[in-house]
Every structure is written in C-alpha cells, then in structure tokens.
Amino acid sequence: MKPEQVVELISDMEDHGVRLWLVGGWGVDALVGEQTRDHHDLDVLVDVIDLERFVERLRELGLEFAYAWEENRDVRHASWHADGALPSAFVYVHRDGREVDTHALRDGKGGDPVPLWNTTFVFTRAGLDVEGLIAGRRVSCISAELQRLAHQGYELPAHQSEDLRRLTELG
C-alpha cells in the first residue's frame, strides 16, 4: 500500500467512527515518521466495539474477505446490529492488491486492552496511547516496545528484522 492509501483509509474509518492502531510495517514507519520500505498490506488493531462497522466499511470500499488467520477466534459484541459472529484475526483484500490485516481487541477490566485472538501477547494502555506520522498525518499506532514484543516467537523475515533495527535506532 502507498502512504496516501493508508492515510485515506484511516481518515475514512475515523469519519465513520472507527479508530485504528497501526502495527507491523506501517506501524514501524509511523514511529520512524517516514516510509522506509514498500508494504504489501496494512496491519491494524481495532476495538471489538467498532469491528462490525469496520468490516462493513471495508466492504463498502470494495475490499473482500480473504481469510481468517489460524489464531482467529470468532467474536460477538452486544452493540452490533447483525446477528452472528465475526473473526478476530483476518485479512480483507481489494482487487487492486491492497490488503488490510486486522486483529481485534477489547478493553480489559484493569484498563489494558485484551487481544481477542489466540495469543500470549499482552497489551498495555500506554502501548496504544502512541502517535506517529504517515505522509505528514498523525496516526495512532502501538509503541516501539509493543512492536518489539509482537515480533518475538517466530523467525523474522529480513524486512521485519530491518524494521526492528529501525526501532532500536529510535531508542
């Protein structure tokens, strides 16, 4: 995805009441303050309360469900209009090649966000109260510390190792 497409999607979602946090490659670039490499997808976190609206908006923007991740757990929220559950870890794609890789979370009893997919990863509220820049626009993203934690437990491809090196340079 191009930076303008990222900013456009984030702005559109905010206009429709959906807040996103950038993770992965674009999340690293937001922390760095500039695009450092090409990205085939946009990795985001979304609150389960907004998940139904988020998915509806993706469809309205021409994206289609591609697959649920292996760690997915189907979820439901009382505030949703439709019956049934939605995946908590999934990918939507556009015919032009854009991909949006999504993971849902909810607020926990202590205030820290709780992932709704099968993971041992632990979030903190402070780790989500971070902003970065994409194409000169302020965006919500996860902290460098949470980025580092999210990249543990598996063999990193070269581009992700380079992302972590950039985070180290930030301090």
Describe this structure in words.
With 171 residues, the chain is α+β, with helices and mostly antiparallel strands. The chain has a single domain, classed as Beta Polymerase, domain 2 (2-Layer Sandwich), CATH 3.30.460. Helix content is 35%, strand content 26%. The chain has helices at 3-15, 24-32, 48-60, 125-128, 144-150, 158-170, and strands spanning 20-23, 42-47, 63-68, 89-94, 99-107, 113-115, 130-134, 137-141. The strands form 2 sheets. Strands 1, 2, 3, 4, 5 and 6 form a 6-stranded mixed β-sheet that branches. A two-stranded antiparallel sheet has the order 7-8. The longest helix is centred in the N-terminal third of the chain and has 13 residues, at 3-15. The chain is globular. The mean pLDDT is 92.
Quickly give the structural class. Answer: alpha+beta
Radius of gyration: 15 Å
Strand content: 25-35%
Following the backbone from N to C, one meets helices and strands in this order, namely HEHEHEEEEHEEHH
- The 3D shape can be described as globular
Question: What is the CATH topology assignment?
Answer: Beta Polymerase, domain 2
Q: How far apart are the first and last residues' alpha carbons, in Å?
A: 27 Å
Question: What is the count of helical runs?
Answer: 6
Number of domains: 1
Instruction: Characterize the main sheet.
Output: 6 strands, mixed
The poorly predicted ranges are none
> Kindly state the mean pLDDT as a whole number?
92
DSSP summary, beta strand count: 8
What share of the residues lie within helices?
25-40%
The CATH architecture: 2-Layer Sandwich
CATH hierarchy class name = Alpha Beta
